[in-house]
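Complex record, two chains
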Amino acid sequence: MNDTLLSVSIALVFGIATFMILRRDLIRVAIGVTLLSHATNMLIVSTGAFLGDRAPIITGEEAVSTGGIFIDDLAAGILAPVIPEGTEMAYVDPLVQALTLTAIVISLATTAFLLILCYRLYQEQGTTDVSEIRRLKG
Amino acid sequence: MDIIQHVPIIMIALPVFFAAFTILFRSKSGLQKALNVGVFALLFILSLRLLFYVWDNGILVYEVGEWGKYGILLVADLLGAGMVVLSSLISLMAMIYATDYMDRKALDATFFPLFNLMAAGLNGIFLTGDIFNMFVFFEILVLSSCGLIVLTGRGDHTKMADKLEAIFKYLILNIVSITLMLVAIASLYATVGTLNMADIAVKVAYLAEAGTLPWHFHVIAMTLIVVFGYKAAMFPLHFWLADVHPSAPAPIHAMLSGMVIKVGVYGILRVHYLIFNETMFMLQPILILLSLITIAVGATSAIGQYDLKRMLAYSSVSQIGYVLLGVGMGTAYALTAAIVYLVNHAVAKSMLFLATGETLYHAGTKDIRKMGGFAKSSPFLGSIFLIGAMSIAGLPPTGGFFSKLVLFDAGLSSEYYVPVAIALIFAIFTLFYLFRTWLAIFWGEIKDTDKADAYAGRNPTVAIKVALAFLACVVIYMGVYPEHLLSLSGTIAEQLLDPQPYITAVLERSVR
């Protein structure tokens, strides 16, 4: 149930982001791009085991009881390194959270650059309407 | 431990460090130029040593942080090391050229840091063994190249408003495509639980053998084809290139068309031939079809252009189609041909773009119809431009002849008669539009007689001549002695089709 709700909300944010990117106003396009990166971040977090009541912190006791934090045994059909399938764990995959942090930082940089670019475009061409910014053709 | 073991990380860390360090010298222009040219020469020498080391001793794996396959690994195999040599060569030449070409204001403040970051991004993409890390380097490459397109040089007749519009297109499309890549990576991680490409390949092979490969795996493969196809300007995603690349100043134009669009081809070669082997039977016909349309669309669009830079940008679209044709055929010989084509096109096209920048400065306009008779006022540029045009069109004794010969031979030997026929027809188009342009610019009478007096004062400086002449020597060398490149590419193609040595070299690391 929880997972379904999460998937639906990620899909909704993706949809809104696509809609915004297709608008004609520069700032709306920028907002759409930001929403797109938010939707992706949510998607990445959701790929880790999502149960809601567990933290991505591996304490010493658990690491010992499961034989170390790196468990991926092809012969036993276990693919994931940190959370083996079908195994009860007291923590969620910390890697996806690290990935999300990286993605957030990158989207911060691109958004800042994009907003400055929108402002400079407005200064140079005197409009924020994408359909009027069409000097390059041919 | 020998210093050579650390070269993969030096290739990335040194330009990143220098991107920050070089700002300290912004008031001392001469020192800054000398330092940066020195660093790029050092990077070129190191990359050559890395290639020879990998050729002699096999794949070199560097662990960043000693986490084994769970951390980030830098893997220098022959493909990665070869691409690093290529990008180091072109960025060194573009850097030498840029020291005299770029405007003083742009050069002192922003050019060197951003160019260093661009080189770091390229080297990182070619050397990383981790698919998420590849995404991070893609972002570094995109943002630094966006900043570089704005800068102005002396032969750059594009207005600032046009440049900003081009960057807006480039940035929005790149963010969307890179987001798509992130979605694909997240889905891949959810499927196999690892980000290391060699490890993914092992687990995918295990899943395929057990018959439990989920259907969305094919969707991930297609999504990544879209992402890399966008980077390489493959047919339905090629439209941005003709707006963005001509807006950049000549050295950056050379880097973008020479190396940055090759990143997409590298991505398909690395990721799809390593991880998505199971889906290639489905993707190869799509790749061949799209590459043929790319060739046709690029060549026909180039014929109708009077803007020199724009015509050459469409020519890049057409040429990248030939590389993707080789990648799509997928036999060992065809992959060899694709890599030979990639190298030859990268060197010849970046030389042509550097020469174009100087020609536009010489002419004072970017309209081909207003140029003419430059063979008299600048014979050096005429001969360089001719060598570049011959290589792109595929005439001996330049490298381009062998790349086309090997590609068509590979196509015929695996019985792709119709694709080869179509590619041949558009090779004649290439010959036509390049030589028509060369004749119009360098032969005939001076068309714009009012400006003719200014031509003599606008000739290339020594640094620009050195960069152009060196690249011309490389182009001729690859045409006269093609066997070195052919044997290297042949070995790379064999390693791509049999990735077991790559996987073994990466996975034998133990976690400490």
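Note: Strands of chain B lie at 60-64, 72-76.
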